[in-house]
Amino acid sequence: MTDEHNRDVAGFSGDPVVNTSHLDRLAARSIRFKNATCTNPVCTPSRMCMMTGREAHRCAAWSNHWPIFPEYLTWPAHFAAHGYRTCLVGKMHFGGRDQMNGFQHRPYGDLRHGLGHQPDPLHMYPGYANPESAGITEVPESLIQDVVVTRETLAFLGEHQDREPDTPWFVCASYGRPHAPLTAPGRYIRRYRDRVPPAAGRSDRDGELEAFARKLVFELTEEQAARGREGYYACVDFVDDCIGDLLEGLEKTGLLENTIVVYTSDHGEMLGQHGCWGKQLYHDASIGVPLLIAAPGVRGGETVRHPVSLIDLFPTTCAMAGLPIPPGLDGIDVSGLVLDPGSKISPRRFSPSATYRYGVRIDHGKTPDGAPNAAWRCVRDERWKYVVVEQGATLLFDLENDPLEVSNLADDPTQAARCRKMRGWLFQDFDWADVHSRLAEDRDRLPQFLSGLPPGTPNQYRLPDGRVFDAEKSLYDARWMAIPPGCTGGIIPQQFG
Would you give the DSSP letter of residue 71? Predict the structure, then answer.
């Protein structure tokens, strides 16, 4: 799993510039889900939804730093209950006291509920910039978290195979790139200098962006925007090499012979489209995710265009592994499409996605609950996307003929029936008043699940006896610092828990 990988920036997606040779080889033996989406295009909630197999409003996945409440069964906990050894290595951005959430082992990652991204350049710690500071990393390569994730994953599985060769395993290797800061070793940055085209056409609706979308518009010079896109491509290339090292190490030791391999990301990246950077928007550049599934006996190199969601991974892998699917999930078993990618029957009519800007726990300039244009929900099928902004616009996009989602067809009389049908999908078991009621209840019970511990540096090691220590303390030297000017992202919460 990576963080913020725009699904179009990959060789297997047809990008002619980026080098993703290792993921391309995986894609050649995988089923590729072209129209996969996340359920909430923000780091923590997307991961919470994926881990619980539930939509955001049904598992308190409101925004970053929220914990998974104990009543929600998680994907790894279910596998652990059925005899699997479970392990998470790397970033997961869980909030609160429980940093395991069903994983039995977690040797390295953001265990002190920080952001899990290494501020770079180093002087920006504890924050970082986004496209403005793209360039060559100042972090020694052996300390870069993506390198450590690969090494620690191989170490865990090597030890597991030696000690418990007959015990099945469920392991998540979770990488931080290509999420900002957009830095990578120099050879990757230089590889893309002046080779990455500018973002495709800007929106005709630029002056009408909703309030939450305007927060994602960065006032960049042409050079800053170009360097930002180059840095992003470099990060994709670098993390592809880290994933390649992981897969080659597992293959060499025979650990892929009877293994389901899933590659995905928690959400996309606007990458300058519509003038926006980051995620949180209903556009496919934001909600879309790469999704590859390889497994023994699966015919590779096929593409599925039916809509699927990250929340489907929980029930789908259960079915593929022969485990019972827990009741109450919003995710749908799509294993039939893995076995028969040419099927004309779609397990889903639509995939949903939503963002609740007022659901933040920790924010600079918090959006009040009930603020207009601060939340949206969309439903998407293979071709069409229907969006309702709370107290705001209604939108309909023809993704086949308008892939950049520029032309809103919601008021087109010829699309009235389609809008009625998709509106019925969108409000099926969903209501804005219910969202606000649930959010208020969840805020009331939140304090009892916080850790009371201050955040550490971005990543920590966890020893077998449970002791946790900072992985980058010497690199960043001090924890409590004034936030330097120029930071536009990545502020580690100056609160406990």
Answer: T
What per-residue confidence (pLDDT) applies to 125? 87
Give 3-state DSSP helix, strand, coil % of the chain, rounded to 5: 35, 15, 50
Neighbours of 441 (CB within 10 A): 11
Give the separation between CA 189 and CA 261, rounded to whole angstroms: 29
Q: Rounded to an integer, what distance in angstroms lies between the CA atom of residue 25 and that of residue 15? A: 15
Better-predicted residue by pLDDT, 366 or 268: 268
The pLDDT of residue 204: 47
What tokens appear for 480 in the block? Answer: 């409590």
User: 387 and 378 in contact (C-beta within 8 Å)?
Assistant: yes
Query: Tens of pLDDT along 179-199?
Result: 999 999 999 999 999 999 999
Distance CA 358, CA 440 (A): 11
- pLDDT for position 299: 87
What are 452-489's pLDDT values in tens digits?
888 788 999 999 999 999 999 888 875 455 667 777 77
- Architecture of the structural domain at 11-341+460-475: 3-Layer(aba) Sandwich (3.40)
Cβ-based burial of 202 (10 A; exposed 0-12, middle 13-18, buried ≥19): middle
pLDDT digits (tens, 9 = 90+) for 114-161: 778 999 999 888 888 989 989 999 999 999 999 999 999 999 999 999
Closest CA to 436 of 328, 357, 318, 496: 357
Domain boundaries, the chain: 11-341+460-475
Contacts of 242 (CB under 8 A, 6+ apart): 146, 147, 149, 150, 175
Q: Which two tokens stand for residue 186?
A: 């120099």
Cα→Cα distances 26→57, 90, 261, 312, Å: 34, 21, 9, 20
- CA dihedral of residues 249, 255, 259, 265 (deg, nearest 10): -30
For residue 234 the two structure tokens come to 């470099």
- Is the whole-model pTM more than 0.85? yes
The neighbour count for residue 25, using CB atoms within 10 Å, is: 16
From residue 488, how far is each of 278, 414, 425, 483 by CA, in Å? Answer: 11, 43, 36, 10
Tokens representing 153 are 């994953």
What was the pLDDT predicted at 30? 98
